[in-house]
Structures are given as C-alpha cells and as structure tokens.
Amino acid sequence: MSEDRNPAVSPLREEGEKPFAEQWEQAWRTHWEKTGFTPYELPVSNLAGTGEREFLMQPRTLDHERARLKRIMGEFEHGFRSLHKLGPAVTVFGSARFRPDHPYYELGKRVGRRLSEAGFTVITGGGPGIMEAANRGAREACGPSYGLNIVLPHQQEPNPFVDETVEFRYFFVRKVMLVKYSCAFIVLPGGLGTLDELFGSCNAPAMREGRAFSLDHGGPRILAGHARFPAVYGQGRCSWG
Length: 241
Description:
Order of helices and strands: HHHEHEHEEHEHEEEEE
Shape: globular
Largest sheet: 6 strands, parallel
Oligomer: single chain
Helix content: 40-55%
Mean pLDDT: 77
Structural class: alpha/beta
CATH architecture: 3-Layer(aba) Sandwich
Low-confidence stretches: 1-13, 206-219, 224-241
Radius of gyration: 20 Å
Number of strands: 10
CATH class: Alpha Beta
CATH topology: Rossmann fold
C-alpha cells in the first residue's frame, strides 16, 4: 500500500509553502503598490473599454482595411530602412517600472555597458525602467544605443539615452523589429509584457538559411536576470525555480 498523501500539497514543495505563481503575483503586487502608475502604461478607464468594445463589434469596411494595411506595410518599411544598417545587436527586454535607485536598474546599466564593450549595438523598447538602464549603460560605454518606441495616446516619450529612436504605432510590428535585427536577447525581470516578449522571441517565425530562427538551431540565446524569473537555455529548456 502506498502512503496517504494530501492531494492539495505538491510533492515538489513543503506543506504550507506558497505555490510559485502565488509568490510571483504577491511580489509584483507589492512592487506595484509601492511604485504606482508609470507613464509607459495605458491607463484603464471605462471610456477606453467602451471604445474597444465598439471597435470589436463594428464590421470592417474594405476601404478601412486597405488603409490599415497601408499603414502596417509603411511601418514595416520604416523599420527596415531605419535598422538595416545595424551590425551585431542584442535586444534587452525588461520592466518599465524600475527606477534609477532600484538594483535591477543598475543591473540593466551593467548589461548595456558590457554589451557595448563587447562590440554590440544595444536595442530596447525605448521606454523607462530597465530599457532606459540598458540604453544608458550603452551610452556611458560610448556604444550605439537604439530605442524602438511605441507611440501611445498620451505621448509616451523615448528615454534620453538612445542615439536613434524608431517609432511604431503597432505593437506587433515593433516586436518583429526587436527580434529581426538581434543576434541575441537578454531578458531581465519584468511583468506580462516582458514574458510576452520572451516567449515571442523563443517562437520567432523568421527564417535563417532555411532553418527556424530558434534556440534549437543555433539562434539567439535568451537569458534572465532573476533566480525566480524563467530562464531559457540553448537547448530550449525552461527553468522556473
């Protein structure tokens, strides 16, 4: 007979210990309560929700879709023209919430500095927090520093440590550019947006010499800067511990 086990307690953790997901959520909730709203994020309001519902319920006209397609293609062309000249580059992902006095901001600066000293162009999303820190580290090391900024309704401004800002209206176009022109990625602590970028980079659909542009085929390596943050290694394995 096998020993009786409490089905509510995972054999991988001690009884009374919080599941990792709960620990993660509690840690970020505590951090957000301290830091508050940042201008890099869209405010949530009933008005915004109403407009979104109306947009989703409306039928699209062919003329509107043609105009949207033209804007999307224009953004891709703008990104290609602006970034094709880059040499070896590394994209740094991370939270927009960390302020200059936070240890992770300092970590971002060190990462940007070391990348520049190694001869890489540093690319970020162009916003505050870890993005600003990485651009700042690159600037202080006299290396090239690029910010791929997203244009938000309340006039999100790029951080002051980029040599060149490339602005995008569509998030998905910006994400393509962050992946397309990088030979590696460094993922520092962040929230859902950073996780989205992490897994988008893991599953990048771009093709290189007939092979998938992925971790399993000699593509970029993705790193993480926190012991509790998911780390993705060269063999495509994930560690959540």
